[in-house]
Each structure stands twice: as C-alpha cells, then as structure tokens.
Amino acid sequence: MAEHHLPPEPGHHHPKGGKGVHADDLKPARRRGYGYYGHDRGSSGLLRTLCFVVLVILLLAGITALVLYLVYRPTSPAFAVNSIAVYSISNVAAPSSAAAGAPSAVAASFQCSLVIRNPSGRASARYDRLTAYVVYRGEAITAPAQLPPLAQDPDSAVVVAPVIGGGAGARPVPVSPDTAAALANDVSYGVVSLRVVLLGRVRFVSGPFRRGWRSMYARCDLLVGVRKGPGVGAAGVAEAPLLGNPSCDVEM
After folding, report:
1. Distances (CA, A) of 237 to 59, 83, 94, 152, 176
2. Rounded-to-integer distance, Cα 147 and Cα 155, Å
3. What phi and psi values does residue 14 have, to the nearest 5 degrees?
4. Which of 4, 63, 104, 225 has its CA 20 to 30 A from that of 20?
5. Sign (positive or negative) of CA dihedral 190, 144, 109, 178
6. What is the pLDDT of residues 142-178, one digit of tens each?
7. Cα angle vertex 29, ends 28, 31, to 5°?
8. 240 half-sphere exposure, CB direction, 13 A CA radius
9. Residue 232: per-residue pLDDT
10. Own/partner pairs for 60-63, CB < 8 Å, 24+ apart?
11. Residue 14 burial (10 A CB sphere; 0-12, 13-18, 19+)
C-alpha cells in the first residue's frame, strides 16, 4: 500500500538548508522609548505653568493700576468770577491819528476776584507761571499781569484778586480802530462784554504719584455793567456789577 506524505508548511520549507523566517519576524520593530522623552514632556508642562503665573501677575498688576488711577485721578480745576472793579477804561488816540480823531489804543485797568477750586478729593494742585489779562472782542485791552505761584490742597478753594492793567495809571494797549470804537460805544451804553483770561501751568500730586506740569488755559466771559461816576479812573468809570451768570471754561 502506497504511503501518502503531507507537503511541508511554507514557513518550514528550506530548499537550501538555511534558517527559516517566521511571519512575525517580517513586522517592523517597535522603537523603544527613552528617558529623555519623558523629560521633554515635564519641561513643557513647567513652561506652561510659568506662563500662566506670569499672565496672572500681569493681570493683577493691570487691575491694581486701574484702581489706583480711578482713585487718585485728578480733576481739572474750576474757575469762577465773584466780582470785578473797573478802575479805568478809555480810548487813547495815537499822535499820528489824533487829527483824524481815530483812537488806536485802549487804557484799561481792572481788579478781578477769581475763585480757583480744586475738586479732586485726593490730589493737591500746584500752579505756576500764572498770567492774567482782559480781552474785548478778541483783542487784549490790558497788559498781562503776573501772579505768584499757588499751592492748593485737595477739595479746596482759593480766592485771588489780581489787579490787571496796572491800576489807575493803566498802560495803553494797541487795538484796532473798530475795537476801540465799539468799546467806546458799549461804555457809553453802560454794558461791556469782557473776557478774563488766565494762562499758566498746573501740576497734580496724588498721594505717592506726581504728575508732570500741564499747560492750562482758563477763560471767563463776563457781562459788566459800567456807569460813569465823578473822579473814578481815567475815564470816570466806577466799579462795575456783574450782569447774569459769568461762565468759565478750562482747557488743559
């Protein structure tokens, strides 16, 4: 009886007697992880934590700075005119135009009671280089008057009363003929619209914070009632009452 032999398995067929190759040996080898991979993951986590801490610190610093700014933020000073005295106001004719009778200058002098209020509750104010003069129809009719430096506590008011124009012996200030004619007409009518201008610089001190000097421009529009009186001033004009409510604006 003939013998039947099964064919050999493919993995064990060695035509030349070499070592057999198993199917699992043909799979790609897995790379083994090394210790420095884990070290990189730890470093990235530490970096993220550090960035988060820095962001939190910056956020808290910003909130603190905003709170301090809102608490110590200064407010622009407020100005008000209580009264004004007219020492002299008259037209002066230049020698070259005297024949024609056209005035070319105005000699005026005033004393203005000016209230300066610092509304800031936590910031004190320092004023320097203060200069005041009076304007009529856009032209200065007095020489500038220098005021001394001024220090003001928080939430306080100070009254200054500078003499603008030099008193009774007012120095003539050149103006246009139209302005001089209009001023003479208003004086004869008894009502003059004037503007008191105060220039200077201001500096605020808020607790531990000191701000730099800032330019200040204040203007107060007045409607002044004038009346002639004997022997008062160069033009015989007496002290003047204020008509209406004077308004003041401040620019910084």
Report:
1. 65, 16, 22, 35, 22
2. 22
3. -125, 90
4. 4
5. negative
6. 999 999 999 999 989 999 999 998 766 778 899 999 9
7. 130
8. 31
9. 41
10. none
11. exposed
Q: Are 198 and 163 in contact (CB under 8 A)?
A: no
Q: What is the mean pLDDT of residues 217-236?
A: 70
> Are 89 and 233 a contacting pair, CB within 8 Å?
yes
- pTM value is 0.68
Identity (one letter) of the amino acid at 1? M
User: Which of these, 131, 124, 119, 116, lies nearest to 211 by C-alpha position?
Assistant: 124
What φ, ψ does residue 150 adopt, rounded to 5°? Answer: -135, 135
Q: How crowded is residue 239: how many other Cβ atoms within 10 Å of its Cβ?
A: 17
**What are 241's two structure tokens?**
């009452």
Give whole-number Cα distances, 250 to 72, 74, 116, 150, 165, in Å. 20, 14, 11, 17, 22
- Per residue in 34-88, pLDDT (tens digit) is 554 555 666 777 888 889 889 999 999 888 888 777 777 778 899 999 989 888 8
Distance (Å, whole) CA 237 – CA 208: 51
How far apart are alpha carbons 236 and 185 in whole angstroms?
A: 15
Contact 252, 215 (CB under 8 A): yes
